[in-house]
What does this fold into?
Amino acid sequence: MKIAAFASGNGSNVEALVKSGIKIDLLICNKQNAYVLARAKKLNIKTYVVVTKNREQRVFEQEMLDILKSNEIELILLAGYMRQIGATLLDQYEGSIINIHPSLLPAFKGPRAIVDAYNYGVKVSGVTIHLIDSELDAGTIIMQEPVILDEGISLEQFEQKIHEVEYQIFYQAVNKIIKERK
Ligand code: GRF
It folds into this structure.
């Protein structure tokens, strides 16, 4: 099964997936200066930058779709891709786009989930791996794992705990999907 990752920023989840043994055939990044580009280079992942800023979604998603189709991609992993997926990609890849979100959905949707959960004062948050549909941070849940916020935990420590769990369950969920769909 050929797999693409989409990312916009740091790229630690992409690196963790590769180091756990998931073969990522290509990376699509929508930010020219994202650190994930340096990681991808080191990991020898073929990379495409498709700028999304100030462009129509239909147009940049068509560009992405052409890349995905010409590389025969069957599964898309959103690993910190900070844009919502639109109809152009969803129509072609419905049921095959997996997102990682740093909260126990449906709590704390949106791009600031870690900070929002921390500021709310929750005692338990976590990580969700789910399929994408047309709603933001919705879609069938594949896997969830809780993270406990111990008394006095700092935001940085909480973020660290979230990321450690992300690296484990993203791999487990992707591995499960690959095996099921073989
Ligand atoms: C992760 O926390 C992920 O859950 C969220 O964006 C962050 C990406 O981190 N969607 P990184 O770029 O993989 O380091």
About this structure: Strands lie at 3-7, 26-29, 46-49, 75-78, 97-101, 124-131, 141-148.
